[in-house]
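Morning!

This is the sequence you dropped in the shared folder:
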Amino acid sequence: MKKRKVVLSSLATAMVMSVLVACSSGKEAPASSTAPATPGKKEEPVTNLNATGFPIVKYPIKLTFFASKSNSNLGNWNETTVWKEYKKMTNIDVDFQLVPVDALTEKRNLALVGGNLPDAFHTARLSSVDLANYGSQGIFIKLNDLIDKYAPNLKKILDKYPEVKKGLTMPDGSIYSFPTLLDPEHTSSIIGSQLWVNQSFLDALGMKMPETTGDYYNYLKAVKTQDPNKNGKADEIPFLASGITMLYDHLKGAWGLGTRGNTHPRVDVDPATNKLRYIPADPKYKEVLQYLNKLNAEGLFYKDIFTVTLNDVTAAYTPGVVGSSLYTNPNLTYPNITGMKGVPTLKGPNGDKLFSRARSFMVLTGGMAITKANKYPAETVRWVDYFYSDEGSKLFRLGVKDVSYTEKDGKFDYVDALKKDSSQLGKHVTWAGGWYPGMDNPKYIISSESDPENMRVSELIKPTFPKELWPEFTYSATEMSEFKALETDLGTYVDEMMAKFVKGTVPFSEWDNYAATLKKMGLDRYLKIYEAAYERYKKG
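The structure's back. Tokens below.
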């Protein structure tokens, strides 16, 4: 018996020493035991995780995140100030495996089915359909209990805003993701891109700020024909943008379309019937396309708006040339551009005045999802939850004080080097491009959304927001494959026909055939599935 006690004592000493060696050598911690427990099996205690405060773990662990890199985000995330600082704070080393946003869908789908899963998908633009699909297969883990235990900041938001919880919860009752949230009171962020006109052109033409779609057409026509820059050349660009979709989304509310906001760009509630409506099948949609066709036919768009790129737009945006645009604030975006003014909500030909491009402040359900390959789910939940707090928003948006930003009298600004060369911002922070998990605090936003002109026009637009803004809906496993196939097929056809109607390659006399084709493609079935999802959303 005495000999047995000596052996046990020696083993205990050896185990303690092995932990001390691991800590001192900087080796990664053993896997967390907070992964979803096997039914009937008692969960083991967590020894490395700190339940609150920093560091999150006592000794280092490493995680691998799939992440998307937008064209506006130029930095290497693994070398940026914000993630180096957060690594020091948390003791968690995240390896961001970045893919270009242009290849995101293909690379994401390959990663999901390829068997070599990352620990999490971050900024991967996961839809509610993706979450329900891969969550039901067990590829994304269920987060309900983990959020309750380890995500106090997100839990506080879910309690305060029930619509967020409803939007996150899949039909099986599970939450599989962390959302992308905006401050619901920061109207400018919820609006995002704005419609702009050139104030000096308005003055030269003797015109007032457009108030109706008719006024806007008249202004664009005058820019093209009346030489407002007074150089004797027909070099003015009435409307400059890449693609037609954003302008369509901006204008459709002037025809009473988009009554639940732009998170659902093709489905809303028809106020005449109080039933779901497929917007591209509605006669008012035809009227919007006829308006856009008129602008295109009269040469009021820059070149072929369907093929020009953002690089083309940047090259064309020179002083004294552009009459109107729809994107971020051009006074801040393009060199030597001044005097562009935001346009309040335009009234349509039938008296409708609705800013239908407004969106839910939960702009994305799937800002981040944790996979079954993750050995440290609780630690990962604590890692991401920080960005739903005030301090986390500050770190994420600004970086490190006196390295990337300064603070004086409660106001924040980037350091002089970044103000002189904004292209260097990507060396410090990674928020450009959006779709990240967290909730932005407007106090820390140093971008066009906080510019005085954006803020001024946003407050004029706010009273014309839809009364209800839907977040994404969720779909059951049985609905999913059919719904996704129908949505893809219908959406592809609608996009193709929008371009053809606006360009005039298909005449509007073909409208009835177009509407009949939507029916043949399964529109009624699509709306029936949508209705089921809507009813679930209403019930919560």
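Headline: Residues 1-27, 33-42 have pLDDT under 50 and may be disordered.

More detail when I'm at my desk.
O.
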